[in-house]
Design brief:
Blueprint lengths: L2 H15 L6 H14 L22 H26 L4 H4 L14 H14 L4 H13 L2 H8 L7 H26 L7 H4 L1 H9 L3
Helix pairs in contact: 1-2, 1-3, 3-5, 5-6, 5-8, 7-8, 8-10
Amino acid sequence: MSADTTFAQIKDIISRLQSPVRDLHSLLSLLAAPLASIKILPPQFITHNVSPSPALALSISKHFPPLQRALLQYILPTWEAALLEENSYSIVQQYFCPDLIFFSTANVTEIAILAYSTILSLPLTEYSARLLVQLTKTYPVDVLWSVVVQGKRRDADKQMVTWEDCIRNVCAVPGKAANVFGTKGDMPRELEHARDFYRKWVSIP
C-alpha cells in the first residue's frame, strides 16, 4: 500500500474521530484498524477490526500524534465513561501506553514517548491526567532510558535529542498536573514525583 493511500486512510479515521461517532461499536472499529496494522491490537478487540488492512504502512512518528490528539480532544470527553463501563478503555490506552506484552512486537516505546509530548502539549484535563498516570507507571524514565539511550541506534545525535525531549517532558509533568489538581491535595503520587525519577536517572553516566 502506498504512502499516499495510507495517509488518506489515516486522515479519514482522524476526521471521523473528530466528528460525532454513532455508537461504541463504530468507535471501536475506528480505533482497531491502526493498532492492528502495527500488531498491537489487544486480542479482545480483534472482532472490531472489520476491515483488516495488513498492508497499511502506518508510520508511528507521523500518524500517532494526530490520532492521540483526536482521542484527547474529541473522543475521551464524550466516550470515556462508556469505554470504562464496557471494559473497552484499554483500546484507548494502547494509543498512549501500549501494554508491555507487545514490547517486542513494535516500537511501543516510541508511542509512549510521543504520548508524553502529545498529552503535555494540550491543556491537561482529568481524563488526560489519568492517561498520564498510567504512562508514568508503564513507561517511567528508567524504561525510556534503557531504550532511547542504551538501545542500539545508529544516529547518536538523534538519540540524544530524543532523550532530551524525554526528560523535558518528564520535568513538565508535576507543573502541568498541578494546574488540574490545584490545591485539592489529591494529585496522583506518580505525577507528583515524576521529577524525582528525572533527577535519579539524569545523573546516570
